């Protein structure tokens, strides 16, 4: 187990910068998920921690040791790859024990470590099989087992579940979470799936265009996003964002005009002056039907998901709004409805996308 | 041996030891050239994959020249051309060099493709667990690349056994040359060349069967179990 520290880490290819001065502290035993859209630099960052990519500037340290110039084999890390990278000409047991053989561990000790890891991961009956004879989930477990036997200070996962089907992804997510609880080892995990991030992480680092936008716990990110990017990225279905303008301001309250005639009243001193352009963020699960609701719209589509439903609405000014669980079976496409927002799921962002207020509905 | 007045079948039967001695030469020349050629091919492939500055260019030129000129011309350059510069080589040595260089060029492209086709993650996974590039190549990459390379390399070898007939033009006493020598004495052109063709065909068939068995063995762990 070991803490990992990134200080002003940058990466450039030629003159093109892909990672811009990232600072991130990963505590000993933490499960940190690097999340962001495709091409945001999260995999590059992970590969820099692994030593598979060089660092242009800044410092990466593992367990207090600067590892900028340390080769991967001496960083005491283990990595699980997106495509598993199992050796097809070796059995499961050989795949798992290969690194131990390299490290000159005695055959008996290596076999014992492989057996122990295989038992934890439910691979005992598969030790004599070749990778091609395994399902996706089994291959993933072998890749994890291969990392486990080395007992590294840090586990690195590069989108390990992206090749699996939805049901298997959920199952493997649970297994990875249980593995972390069992081992207590520092884990750094890359994904573009925010559901994966929220269910696994003790801390989520949201990355966009090579910059660390926000690093916090899942609940913090969800309830107090620093900016519009995080607000939109975290949460499923995605947060509704309506363009608006601060209109009237009077004794400890202000209203925001959204679309044509919708007015949302907020409490407290206005974060910006009258006439300022803002964005109102409304979580789909914070919206409910109410006869006197300030947000008017027309139902355009209803998605029944079993336990809940998603209602798509043409909202104020024609802006699309998605509502979760509003007694959807009663609603019909084309119906005019009014919505009220719960304070907890309402945020206000300034013109640059920075959050300036949350949950202060009048 | 006196072959005058013999029927074609008798002629073939009587000439068989003579032809088989030539076939042994052909096989020896083929096996030797393949072995040396594969060593050349491996280093050329690695040099090109690693993009070693000057060596990679030299390797590319070598491959381009060998693939872009007829094998017969290459054999003539070595056997008849080099003596002009004071380098005189025997027929067998010349043939061995010529065929080895040819195998080296063609096989280097096969190996380069096979190694290049291995997912880059395999290199990285090996790097993370502490393997050197050479260890990774030997223990992880080549065993996988060999499976991909085996069919085209096998085809190359079968082709090479047949191509050894070109060595007849530089006096190597291989199968085709032996057939030529018998024909010169008996003038039963069809019978002798047909006999030589039949031996080449039998050799190719045996080699193709061997190649199939080898491929099955090499791929035993890449077939999904039906259980």
From TrEMBL, chain A:
The keyword Transport applies. Residues 4-234 form the ABC transporter domain. It is found in: Cell inner membrane. Pfam families: ABC_tran (PF00005), TOBE_2 (PF08402). One of its GO terms (cellular component) is ATP-binding cassette (ABC) transporter complex, substrate-binding subunit-containing. Belongs to the ABC transporter superfamily. This is sn-glycerol-3-phosphate ABC transporter ATP-binding protein UgpC. It comes from Segnochrobactrum spirostomi. The lineage of its organism: Bacteria, Pseudomonadati, Pseudomonadota, Alphaproteobacteria, Hyphomicrobiales. The gene is ugpC.
From TrEMBL, chain B:
One of its GO terms (molecular function) is L-cystine transmembrane transporter activity. It is found in: Cell inner membrane; Cell membrane. InterPro entries: AA_ABC_transptr_permease_3TM, ArtM/GltK/GlnP/TcyL/YhdX-like, MetI-like, MetI-like_sf. Its main location: membrane. Keywords: Amino-acid transport, Cell membrane, Membrane, Transmembrane, Transmembrane helix, Transport. Residues 23-211 form the ABC transmembrane type-1 domain. One of its GO terms (cellular component) is ATP-binding cassette (ABC) transporter complex. Pfam families: BPD_transp_1. It is a multi-pass membrane protein. Belongs to the binding-protein-dependent transport system permease family. HisMQ subfamily. This is Cystine ABC transporter permease.
């Amino acid at each position: 187990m070991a803490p990992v520290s990134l200080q002003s880490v940058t990466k450039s290819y030629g003159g093109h910068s892909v990672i811009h001065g990232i600072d991130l502290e990963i505590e000993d035993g933490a499960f940190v998920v690097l999340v962001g859209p495709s091409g945001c630099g999260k995999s590059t960052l992970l590969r820099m921690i692994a030593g598979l990519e060089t660092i242009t500037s800044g410092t990466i340290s593992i367990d207090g040791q600067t590892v900028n110039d340390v080769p991967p084999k001496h960083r005491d890390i283990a990595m699980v790859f997106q495509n598993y990278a199992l050796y097809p000409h070796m059995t499961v047991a050989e795949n798992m024990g290969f690194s131990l053989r390299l490290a000159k561990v005695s055959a008996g000790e290596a076999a014992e470590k492989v057996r122990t890891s295989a038992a934890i991961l439910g691979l005992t009956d598969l030790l004599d099989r070749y990778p091609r004879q395994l399902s996706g989930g089994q291959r993933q477990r072998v890749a994890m087992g291969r990392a486990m036997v080395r007992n590294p200070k840090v586990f690195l996962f590069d989108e390990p579940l992206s090749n699996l089907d939805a049901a298997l992804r959920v199952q493997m997510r649970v297994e990875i979470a249980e593995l972390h609880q069992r081992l207590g080892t520092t884990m750094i995990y890359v994904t573009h799936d925010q559901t994966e991030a929220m269910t696994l992480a003790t801390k989520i680092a949201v990355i966009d265009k090579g910059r660390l936008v926000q690093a916090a716990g899942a609940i913090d990110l969800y309830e107090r996003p620093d900016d519009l990017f995080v607000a939109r990225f975290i949460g499923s279905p995605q947060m509704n964002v309506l363009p608006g303008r601060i209109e009237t301001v009077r004794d400890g309250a202000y209203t925001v005009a959204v679309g044509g005639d919708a007015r949302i009243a907020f409490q407290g001193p206005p974060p910006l002056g009258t006439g300022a352009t803002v964005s109102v963020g409304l979580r789909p699960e914070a919206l409910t039907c109410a006869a006197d609701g300030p947000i008017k719209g027309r139902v355009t589509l209803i998605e029944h998901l079993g336990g809940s439903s998603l209602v798509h609405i043409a909202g104020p000014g024609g802006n699309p709004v998605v509502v979760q669980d509003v007694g959807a079976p009663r609603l019909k496409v084309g119906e005019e409805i009014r919505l009220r927002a719960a304070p907890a799921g309402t945020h206000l962002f300034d013109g640059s996308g920075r959050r300036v207020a949350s949950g202060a509905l009048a | 041996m006196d072959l005058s007045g013999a029927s074609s079948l008798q002629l073939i039967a009587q000439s068989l030891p003579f032809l088989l001695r030539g076939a042994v030469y052909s096989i020896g020349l083929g096996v030797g050239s393949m072995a040396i050629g594969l060593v050349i091919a491996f280093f050329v492939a690695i040099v090109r994959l690693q993009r070693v500055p000057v060596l990679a260019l030299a390797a590319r030129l070598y491959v381009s020249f060998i693939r872009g000129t007829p094998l017969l011309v290459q054999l003539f350059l070595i056997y008849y051309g080099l003596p002009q510069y004071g380098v005189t080589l025997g027929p067998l040595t010349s043939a061995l060099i010529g065929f080895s260089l040819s195998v080296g060029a063609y096989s280097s492209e096969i190996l380069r493709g096979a190694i290049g086709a291995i997912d880059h993650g395999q290199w990285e996974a090996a790097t993370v667990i502490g393997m050197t590039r050479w260890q990774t190549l030997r223990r992880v990459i080549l065993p996988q690349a060999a499976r991909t390379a085996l069919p085209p390399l096998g085809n190359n070898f079968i082709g090479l056994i047949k191509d050894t007939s070109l060595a007849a033009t530089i006096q190597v006493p291989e199968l085709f040359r032996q057939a030529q020598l018998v024909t010169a004495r008996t003038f039963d052109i069809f019978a002798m060349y047909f006999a030589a063709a039949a031996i080449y065909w039998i050799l190719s068939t045996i080699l193709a069967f061997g190649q199939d068995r080898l491929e099955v063995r090499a791929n035993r762990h890449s077939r999904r179990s039906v259980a």
